[in-house]
Amino acid sequence: MKYKLYIKNATQLVTVSKDNKPFLVGKEMSNVEIIENGSLIVDEKGVIVDVGKEQDIGPKYRDAEFERVIDASGKSVIPGFVDGHTHPVFAGDRVHEFAMKLAGATYLEVQQAGGGITFTVNHTRQASEDELLSLLQPRLDRMLRQGTTTIEAKSGYGLEKDTEMKMLKVLHRANKIHPVEIVSTYLGAHSIPKGSTAAQATQDIVENQLPELARLRAAGEISPANIDVFLEKGFFELDDTRRILEAGKALGLEINFHGDELSYMASGELAGELKARAISHLEKVSEEGMKTMAATPTFGVLLPTTAYVLRLEAPPARRMIELGVPVCLGSDFNPNAHCLSMPFVMNLACVLMKMNMNESLIAATLNSAASLNISNTHGSLEVNKFGDMIVIDSPRWEHIIYEMVDPPILNVIKKGTVVFSK
Ligand SMILES: N=CN[C@@H](CCC(=O)O)C(=O)O
Ligand SMILES: [Zn+2]
Protein backbone atom coordinates (compact mmCIF):
# COMPACT_ATOMS: atom_id res chain seq x y z
CA MET A 1 0.00 0.00 0.00
CA LYS A 2 1.26 3.50 -0.89
CA TYR A 3 0.85 6.63 1.20
CA LYS A 4 1.77 10.25 0.74
CA LEU A 5 3.37 11.04 4.08
CA TYR A 6 4.64 9.48 7.28
CA ILE A 7 5.36 11.89 10.13
CA LYS A 8 7.53 9.77 12.37
CA ASN A 9 8.06 9.98 16.08
CA ALA A 10 7.31 13.64 16.83
CA THR A 11 8.38 14.48 20.38
CA GLN A 12 5.01 16.24 20.63
CA LEU A 13 2.33 15.43 18.07
CA VAL A 14 -0.27 18.03 18.97
CA THR A 15 -3.55 16.71 17.58
CA VAL A 16 -5.44 19.53 19.42
CA SER A 17 -8.59 17.47 19.93
CA LYS A 18 -9.86 13.91 19.80
CA ASP A 19 -13.26 12.27 19.36
CA ASN A 20 -14.05 14.62 16.47
CA LYS A 21 -15.33 17.43 18.65
CA PRO A 22 -16.58 20.14 16.26
CA PHE A 23 -15.22 22.98 18.47
CA LEU A 24 -14.19 23.63 22.06
CA VAL A 25 -15.48 26.12 24.63
CA GLY A 26 -14.82 27.28 28.19
CA LYS A 27 -12.36 25.21 30.22
CA GLU A 28 -12.05 22.68 27.37
CA MET A 29 -10.07 25.38 25.55
CA SER A 30 -7.28 25.10 28.09
CA ASN A 31 -6.46 21.53 27.13
CA VAL A 32 -4.84 20.51 23.86
CA GLU A 33 -4.42 16.82 23.09
CA ILE A 34 -0.77 15.82 22.68
CA ILE A 35 0.67 12.43 21.73
CA GLU A 36 4.26 12.07 22.91
CA ASN A 37 6.48 10.24 20.42
CA GLY A 38 3.60 10.42 18.01
CA SER A 39 3.32 9.42 14.35
CA LEU A 40 0.79 10.12 11.66
CA ILE A 41 0.02 8.72 8.20
CA VAL A 42 -1.55 10.66 5.30
CA ASP A 43 -2.98 8.83 2.29
CA GLU A 44 -2.65 9.76 -1.37
CA LYS A 45 -5.77 11.97 -1.21
CA GLY A 46 -4.15 14.08 1.52
CA VAL A 47 -6.31 12.68 4.29
CA ILE A 48 -5.03 11.46 7.68
CA VAL A 49 -5.64 7.73 7.97
CA ASP A 50 -3.81 6.92 11.19
CA VAL A 51 -2.48 8.78 14.24
CA GLY A 52 -0.90 7.32 17.36
CA LYS A 53 2.27 6.49 19.22
CA GLU A 54 5.24 5.58 17.04
CA GLN A 55 5.51 2.27 18.87
CA ASP A 56 2.06 1.35 17.47
CA ILE A 57 2.18 3.08 14.06
CA GLY A 58 5.75 2.00 13.12
CA PRO A 59 5.20 -1.77 13.14
CA LYS A 60 1.76 -1.43 11.52
CA TYR A 61 3.17 0.33 8.43
CA ARG A 62 6.52 -1.51 8.27
CA ASP A 63 5.87 -2.79 4.73
CA ALA A 64 4.08 0.29 3.39
CA GLU A 65 5.55 2.70 0.82
CA PHE A 66 5.63 6.45 1.45
CA GLU A 67 6.24 9.33 -0.93
CA ARG A 68 7.84 11.18 1.98
CA VAL A 69 8.92 10.35 5.51
CA ILE A 70 9.67 13.16 7.97
CA ASP A 71 11.62 12.13 11.02
CA ALA A 72 10.15 14.44 13.64
CA SER A 73 12.24 13.23 16.60
CA GLY A 74 13.13 16.22 18.75
CA LYS A 75 10.46 18.25 16.96
CA SER A 76 6.80 19.04 17.43
CA VAL A 77 3.90 19.01 15.00
CA ILE A 78 0.68 21.03 15.18
CA PRO A 79 -2.25 21.53 12.76
CA GLY A 80 -1.88 24.22 10.08
CA PHE A 81 -3.42 27.52 11.14
CA VAL A 82 -6.90 28.47 9.98
CA ASP A 83 -6.94 32.27 9.80
CA GLY A 84 -10.54 33.20 10.54
CA HIS A 85 -10.60 36.74 9.09
CA THR A 86 -8.62 38.34 6.26
CA HIS A 87 -8.98 41.02 3.58
CA PRO A 88 -6.12 39.90 1.30
CA VAL A 89 -7.34 41.17 -2.11
CA PHE A 90 -6.51 44.83 -2.58
CA ALA A 91 -4.36 47.28 -4.48
CA GLY A 92 -2.66 50.38 -3.08
CA ASP A 93 -0.42 50.95 -0.12
CA ARG A 94 -1.49 52.61 3.15
CA VAL A 95 1.85 52.82 4.92
CA HIS A 96 1.38 56.62 5.14
CA GLU A 97 -1.70 56.03 7.32
CA PHE A 98 0.39 54.14 9.82
CA ALA A 99 2.34 57.35 10.34
CA MET A 100 -0.95 59.28 10.80
CA LYS A 101 -2.16 56.76 13.37
CA LEU A 102 1.13 56.87 15.24
CA ALA A 103 0.70 60.64 15.37
CA GLY A 104 -2.68 60.13 17.06
CA ALA A 105 -5.30 59.92 14.28
CA THR A 106 -8.14 57.45 14.94
CA TYR A 107 -9.45 54.91 12.42
CA LEU A 108 -12.51 57.13 11.76
CA GLU A 109 -10.41 60.27 11.36
CA VAL A 110 -8.23 58.53 8.75
CA GLN A 111 -11.38 57.34 6.96
CA GLN A 112 -12.92 60.85 7.08
CA ALA A 113 -9.74 62.29 5.56
CA GLY A 114 -10.35 60.13 2.46
CA GLY A 115 -8.06 57.33 3.65
CA GLY A 116 -8.92 53.94 5.05
CA ILE A 117 -11.33 51.74 3.14
CA THR A 118 -12.11 54.58 0.69
CA PHE A 119 -8.46 54.81 -0.37
CA THR A 120 -8.22 51.05 -0.94
CA VAL A 121 -11.54 51.00 -2.81
CA ASN A 122 -10.26 53.62 -5.27
CA HIS A 123 -7.14 51.59 -6.02
CA THR A 124 -8.87 48.21 -6.11
CA ARG A 125 -11.54 49.42 -8.55
CA GLN A 126 -8.79 50.46 -10.97
CA ALA A 127 -6.82 47.19 -10.77
CA SER A 128 -7.55 44.35 -13.17
CA GLU A 129 -8.45 40.83 -12.03
CA ASP A 130 -4.99 39.60 -13.07
CA GLU A 131 -3.24 42.44 -11.22
CA LEU A 132 -5.19 41.68 -8.05
CA LEU A 133 -4.34 37.99 -8.38
CA SER A 134 -0.65 38.74 -8.72
CA LEU A 135 -0.80 41.00 -5.65
CA LEU A 136 -2.60 38.28 -3.70
CA GLN A 137 -0.23 35.40 -4.47
CA PRO A 138 2.87 36.67 -2.61
CA ARG A 139 0.64 37.55 0.36
CA LEU A 140 -0.57 33.96 0.44
CA ASP A 141 3.06 32.77 0.15
CA ARG A 142 3.96 34.83 3.21
CA MET A 143 0.99 33.47 5.17
CA LEU A 144 1.99 29.92 4.25
CA ARG A 145 5.55 30.45 5.48
CA GLN A 146 4.06 31.40 8.84
CA GLY A 147 2.05 28.19 9.02
CA THR A 148 -1.33 29.26 7.67
CA THR A 149 -2.89 26.55 5.51
CA THR A 150 -6.48 27.86 5.28
CA ILE A 151 -7.95 31.36 5.37
CA GLU A 152 -11.28 33.08 5.37
CA ALA A 153 -10.98 35.89 2.79
CA LYS A 154 -13.33 38.76 2.03
CA SER A 155 -14.26 40.96 -0.87
CA GLY A 156 -15.24 44.48 0.25
CA TYR A 157 -12.97 46.93 -1.56
CA GLY A 158 -15.33 47.42 -4.49
CA LEU A 159 -18.62 48.53 -2.94
CA GLU A 160 -20.21 48.11 -6.37
CA LYS A 161 -21.18 45.02 -8.29
CA ASP A 162 -18.34 44.65 -10.78
CA THR A 163 -15.44 45.16 -8.38
CA GLU A 164 -17.00 43.03 -5.65
CA MET A 165 -17.47 40.19 -8.16
CA LYS A 166 -13.94 40.75 -9.50
CA MET A 167 -12.57 40.25 -5.99
CA LEU A 168 -14.58 37.06 -5.51
CA LYS A 169 -13.29 35.79 -8.88
CA VAL A 170 -9.72 36.49 -7.78
CA LEU A 171 -10.28 34.45 -4.60
CA HIS A 172 -11.88 31.63 -6.59
CA ARG A 173 -8.91 31.50 -9.01
CA ALA A 174 -6.31 31.74 -6.24
CA ASN A 175 -7.93 28.83 -4.42
CA LYS A 176 -7.28 26.65 -7.46
CA ILE A 177 -3.62 27.53 -7.90
CA HIS A 178 -2.23 28.24 -4.44
CA PRO A 179 -1.72 25.77 -1.57
CA VAL A 180 -3.38 28.11 0.95
CA GLU A 181 -7.03 27.08 0.90
CA ILE A 182 -9.53 29.92 0.73
CA VAL A 183 -13.05 30.13 2.12
CA SER A 184 -14.43 33.29 0.58
CA THR A 185 -16.86 35.85 1.98
CA TYR A 186 -18.90 38.49 0.18
CA LEU A 187 -18.50 41.88 1.94
CA GLY A 188 -20.22 44.32 -0.39
CA ALA A 189 -21.35 46.19 2.74
CA HIS A 190 -17.87 47.12 3.98
CA SER A 191 -18.43 50.88 3.70
CA ILE A 192 -20.88 53.31 2.14
CA PRO A 193 -19.70 54.14 -1.38
CA LYS A 194 -19.02 57.80 -2.11
CA GLY A 195 -22.14 59.59 -3.34
CA SER A 196 -24.55 57.06 -1.77
CA THR A 197 -26.56 56.85 1.41
CA ALA A 198 -26.61 53.71 3.56
CA ALA A 199 -30.17 53.05 2.34
CA GLN A 200 -29.13 53.30 -1.32
CA ALA A 201 -26.09 51.11 -0.75
CA THR A 202 -28.25 48.51 1.01
CA GLN A 203 -30.72 48.52 -1.84
CA ASP A 204 -27.94 48.10 -4.40
CA ILE A 205 -26.53 45.13 -2.48
CA VAL A 206 -29.86 43.38 -2.08
CA GLU A 207 -31.32 44.10 -5.51
CA ASN A 208 -28.24 44.25 -7.70
CA GLN A 209 -25.11 42.70 -6.20
CA LEU A 210 -26.59 39.63 -4.52
CA PRO A 211 -28.51 38.46 -7.62
CA GLU A 212 -25.27 38.77 -9.63
CA LEU A 213 -23.44 36.83 -6.94
CA ALA A 214 -26.01 34.04 -7.21
CA ARG A 215 -25.67 34.01 -11.01
CA LEU A 216 -21.86 33.83 -10.98
CA ARG A 217 -21.86 31.23 -8.24
CA ALA A 218 -24.21 29.04 -10.28
CA ALA A 219 -21.91 29.50 -13.28
CA GLY A 220 -18.94 28.27 -11.18
CA GLU A 221 -17.02 31.57 -11.45
CA ILE A 222 -17.06 32.44 -7.75
CA SER A 223 -17.53 30.43 -4.56
CA PRO A 224 -18.59 32.63 -1.63
CA ALA A 225 -19.56 30.70 1.50
CA ASN A 226 -20.35 33.63 3.81
CA ILE A 227 -21.98 37.04 3.87
CA ASP A 228 -20.46 39.88 5.88
CA VAL A 229 -21.43 43.47 6.78
CA PHE A 230 -19.46 46.14 8.69
CA LEU A 231 -22.09 46.89 11.34
CA GLU A 232 -20.87 50.23 12.71
CA LYS A 233 -22.06 53.78 13.35
CA GLY A 234 -21.75 55.75 10.10
CA PHE A 235 -21.33 52.54 8.07
CA PHE A 236 -24.19 50.00 8.04
CA GLU A 237 -26.43 50.26 11.10
CA LEU A 238 -28.81 47.70 12.55
CA ASP A 239 -31.75 47.68 10.10
CA ASP A 240 -29.63 47.80 6.95
CA THR A 241 -27.34 45.10 8.34
CA ARG A 242 -30.26 42.84 9.17
CA ARG A 243 -31.72 43.28 5.69
CA ILE A 244 -28.43 42.46 3.93
CA LEU A 245 -27.59 39.48 6.13
CA GLU A 246 -31.08 38.02 5.74
CA ALA A 247 -30.88 38.40 1.97
CA GLY A 248 -27.52 36.60 1.97
CA LYS A 249 -28.85 33.87 4.19
CA ALA A 250 -31.73 33.32 1.80
CA LEU A 251 -29.10 32.51 -0.85
CA GLY A 252 -27.52 29.91 1.42
CA LEU A 253 -24.61 32.05 2.65
CA GLU A 254 -23.50 31.74 6.28
CA ILE A 255 -23.72 34.95 8.32
CA ASN A 256 -20.23 36.02 9.47
CA PHE A 257 -20.08 39.77 10.13
CA HIS A 258 -17.99 42.63 11.61
CA GLY A 259 -19.59 43.88 14.82
CA ASP A 260 -19.10 45.90 18.01
CA GLU A 261 -15.65 47.07 16.88
CA LEU A 262 -15.58 50.85 17.39
CA SER A 263 -19.01 51.22 18.99
CA TYR A 264 -21.48 48.92 20.71
CA MET A 265 -24.01 47.95 18.03
CA ALA A 266 -25.91 45.05 19.69
CA SER A 267 -24.10 42.60 17.43
CA GLY A 268 -24.35 39.58 19.71
CA GLU A 269 -28.06 40.20 20.08
CA LEU A 270 -28.50 40.43 16.29
CA ALA A 271 -26.46 37.24 15.83
CA GLY A 272 -28.88 35.41 18.12
CA GLU A 273 -31.86 36.69 16.17
CA LEU A 274 -30.38 35.69 12.79
CA LYS A 275 -28.56 32.54 14.00
CA ALA A 276 -25.29 33.98 12.72
CA ARG A 277 -22.32 31.67 12.47
CA ALA A 278 -19.70 34.24 13.51
CA ILE A 279 -19.01 37.83 14.53
CA SER A 280 -15.57 39.39 14.19
CA HIS A 281 -13.93 42.09 16.34
CA LEU A 282 -16.25 42.45 19.39
CA GLU A 283 -14.08 45.00 21.18
CA LYS A 284 -17.30 46.65 22.48
CA VAL A 285 -19.55 43.59 22.86
CA SER A 286 -22.06 43.62 25.75
CA GLU A 287 -22.50 41.02 28.49
CA GLU A 288 -25.93 40.23 27.03
CA GLY A 289 -24.40 39.91 23.56
CA MET A 290 -21.79 37.43 24.79
CA LYS A 291 -24.42 35.35 26.57
CA THR A 292 -26.49 35.23 23.40
CA MET A 293 -23.43 34.20 21.39
CA ALA A 294 -22.68 31.36 23.80
CA ALA A 295 -26.27 30.12 23.64
CA THR A 296 -26.73 30.32 19.85
CA PRO A 297 -23.74 29.42 19.41
CA THR A 298 -22.08 32.20 17.39
CA PHE A 299 -18.29 32.09 17.02
CA GLY A 300 -16.36 35.13 18.24
CA VAL A 301 -13.51 35.80 15.81
CA LEU A 302 -11.06 37.93 17.77
CA LEU A 303 -8.51 40.07 15.94
CA PRO A 304 -5.83 41.28 18.34
CA THR A 305 -3.88 43.08 15.61
CA THR A 306 -6.71 45.66 15.34
CA ALA A 307 -6.57 46.62 18.99
CA TYR A 308 -2.77 46.66 18.80
CA VAL A 309 -2.44 48.84 15.72
CA LEU A 310 -5.31 51.20 16.58
CA ARG A 311 -4.46 51.29 20.29
CA LEU A 312 -7.98 50.19 21.21
CA GLU A 313 -9.01 48.23 24.21
CA ALA A 314 -8.79 44.55 23.28
CA PRO A 315 -11.99 42.46 23.16
CA PRO A 316 -12.96 40.73 26.43
CA ALA A 317 -11.58 37.32 25.48
CA ARG A 318 -11.44 36.03 29.05
CA ARG A 319 -15.10 36.84 29.72
CA MET A 320 -16.13 35.26 26.42
CA ILE A 321 -14.32 32.05 27.26
CA GLU A 322 -15.80 32.08 30.78
CA LEU A 323 -19.31 32.45 29.34
CA GLY A 324 -18.77 29.65 26.81
CA VAL A 325 -18.52 31.67 23.59
CA PRO A 326 -16.52 29.63 21.06
CA VAL A 327 -13.53 31.90 20.52
CA CYS A 328 -11.45 31.95 17.33
CA LEU A 329 -8.54 34.03 16.06
CA GLY A 330 -7.83 35.82 12.80
CA SER A 331 -5.02 38.00 11.52
CA ASP A 332 -7.43 40.62 10.08
CA PHE A 333 -4.79 41.02 7.36
CA ASN A 334 -5.77 44.24 5.53
CA PRO A 335 -4.05 47.53 4.63
CA ASN A 336 -4.82 48.88 8.11
CA ALA A 337 -3.48 45.88 10.08
CA HIS A 338 -0.75 44.50 7.81
CA CYS A 339 -0.21 41.19 9.56
CA LEU A 340 0.27 37.89 7.73
CA SER A 341 1.41 35.92 10.74
CA MET A 342 -0.82 33.76 12.94
CA PRO A 343 2.06 33.04 15.38
CA PHE A 344 2.22 36.81 16.01
CA VAL A 345 -1.58 36.95 16.38
CA MET A 346 -1.43 34.14 18.96
CA ASN A 347 1.34 35.93 20.83
CA LEU A 348 -0.81 39.10 20.92
CA ALA A 349 -3.83 37.05 22.00
CA CYS A 350 -1.83 35.77 24.95
CA VAL A 351 -0.24 39.06 25.96
CA LEU A 352 -3.00 41.59 25.14
CA MET A 353 -6.11 39.46 25.61
CA LYS A 354 -4.80 37.24 28.42
CA MET A 355 -5.55 33.98 26.64
CA ASN A 356 -3.30 31.05 27.52
CA MET A 357 -1.28 29.31 24.81
CA ASN A 358 -3.58 26.29 24.61
CA GLU A 359 -6.61 28.56 24.13
CA SER A 360 -4.76 30.47 21.43
CA LEU A 361 -3.88 27.31 19.53
CA ILE A 362 -7.44 25.98 19.67
CA ALA A 363 -8.76 29.40 18.60
CA ALA A 364 -6.33 29.46 15.64
CA THR A 365 -7.09 25.93 14.45
CA LEU A 366 -10.16 23.90 15.42
CA ASN A 367 -12.42 26.78 16.44
CA SER A 368 -11.60 28.97 13.47
CA ALA A 369 -12.21 25.98 11.20
CA ALA A 370 -15.59 25.58 12.91
CA SER A 371 -16.38 29.28 12.37
CA LEU A 372 -16.07 28.50 8.66
CA ASN A 373 -18.09 25.30 8.97
CA ILE A 374 -15.15 23.09 7.98
CA SER A 375 -14.07 21.56 11.29
CA ASN A 376 -15.17 18.10 10.13
CA THR A 377 -12.18 18.18 7.74
CA HIS A 378 -9.83 20.87 9.11
CA GLY A 379 -8.43 22.26 12.36
CA SER A 380 -7.10 19.17 14.18
CA LEU A 381 -4.96 16.13 13.41
CA GLU A 382 -7.57 13.39 13.50
CA VAL A 383 -8.39 10.51 11.22
CA ASN A 384 -10.46 11.56 8.18
CA LYS A 385 -9.28 15.18 8.34
CA PHE A 386 -6.85 16.72 5.86
CA GLY A 387 -3.14 16.41 6.61
CA ASP A 388 -2.53 20.15 7.11
CA MET A 389 0.39 20.57 9.53
CA ILE A 390 3.36 22.55 10.76
CA VAL A 391 6.61 20.89 11.82
CA ILE A 392 8.28 23.01 14.51
CA ASP A 393 12.01 22.82 15.18
CA SER A 394 11.56 22.42 18.90
CA PRO A 395 10.45 19.53 21.12
CA ARG A 396 7.80 21.83 22.66
CA TRP A 397 5.12 23.26 20.39
CA GLU A 398 4.68 26.48 22.39
CA HIS A 399 7.86 27.84 20.82
CA ILE A 400 5.79 28.85 17.81
CA ILE A 401 4.08 31.44 20.04
CA TYR A 402 6.94 32.23 22.37
CA GLU A 403 9.64 32.91 19.74
CA MET A 404 8.36 36.19 18.37
CA VAL A 405 8.84 37.48 14.82
CA ASP A 406 10.73 34.46 13.43
CA PRO A 407 9.07 31.32 14.82
CA PRO A 408 11.01 28.06 14.31
CA ILE A 409 8.88 26.63 11.50
CA LEU A 410 10.66 23.82 9.60
CA ASN A 411 7.92 22.61 7.25
CA VAL A 412 4.39 23.52 6.33
CA ILE A 413 2.31 20.68 4.94
CA LYS A 414 -0.98 20.99 3.02
CA LYS A 415 -3.00 17.83 2.42
CA GLY A 416 0.08 15.70 3.04
CA THR A 417 2.34 17.63 0.63
CA VAL A 418 5.25 19.68 1.95
CA VAL A 419 4.54 23.16 0.57
CA PHE A 420 7.18 25.09 2.51
CA SER A 421 10.51 24.04 3.97
CA LYS A 422 13.03 26.21 5.74
N1 LIG B 1 -13.33 47.16 10.32
C1 LIG B 1 -13.52 47.01 9.15
N2 LIG B 1 -12.76 46.36 8.26
C2 LIG B 1 -11.37 46.01 8.40
C3 LIG B 1 -10.47 47.14 8.08
C4 LIG B 1 -10.46 47.39 6.65
C5 LIG B 1 -9.58 48.52 6.23
O1 LIG B 1 -9.25 49.41 7.04
O2 LIG B 1 -9.22 48.49 5.05
C6 LIG B 1 -11.08 45.31 9.69
O3 LIG B 1 -11.67 44.25 9.92
O4 LIG B 1 -10.24 45.73 10.52
ZN1 LIG C 1 -12.25 42.87 8.72
TrEMBL record:
<dbReference type="GO" id="GO:0050480">
    <property type="term" value="F:imidazolonepropionase activity"/>
</dbReference>
<keyword id="KW-0369">Histidine metabolism</keyword>
<dbReference type="Pfam" id="PF01979">
    <property type="entry name" value="Amidohydro_1"/>
</dbReference>
<dbReference type="InterPro" id="IPR011059">
    <property type="entry name" value="Metal-dep_hydrolase_composite"/>
</dbReference>
<keyword id="KW-0479">Metal-binding</keyword>
<dbReference type="GO" id="GO:0019557">
    <property type="term" value="P:L-histidine catabolic process to glutamate and formate"/>
</dbReference>
<dbReference type="GO" id="GO:0046872">
    <property type="term" value="F:metal ion binding"/>
</dbReference>
<protein>
    <recommendedName>
        <fullName>Probable imidazolonepropionase</fullName>
        <ecNumber>3.5.2.7</ecNumber>
    </recommendedName>
</protein>
<dbReference type="InterPro" id="IPR032466">
    <property type="entry name" value="Metal_Hydrolase"/>
</dbReference>
<dbReference type="GO" id="GO:0019556">
    <property type="term" value="P:L-histidine catabolic process to glutamate and formamide"/>
</dbReference>
<dbReference type="InterPro" id="IPR006680">
    <property type="entry name" value="Amidohydro-rel"/>
</dbReference>
<keyword id="KW-0378">Hydrolase</keyword>
<feature type="domain" description="Amidohydrolase-related">
    <location>
        <begin position="281"/>
        <end position="419"/>
    </location>
</feature>
<keyword id="KW-0408">Iron</keyword>
<dbReference type="InterPro" id="IPR005920">
    <property type="entry name" value="HutI"/>
</dbReference>
<comment type="similarity">
    <text>Belongs to the metallo-dependent hydrolases superfamily. HutI family.</text>
</comment>
<keyword id="KW-0862">Zinc</keyword>
<comment type="pathway">
    <text>Amino-acid degradation; L-histidine degradation into L-glutamate; N-formimidoyl-L-glutamate from L-histidine: step 3/3.</text>
</comment>
<dbReference type="GO" id="GO:0005737">
    <property type="term" value="C:cytoplasm"/>
</dbReference>
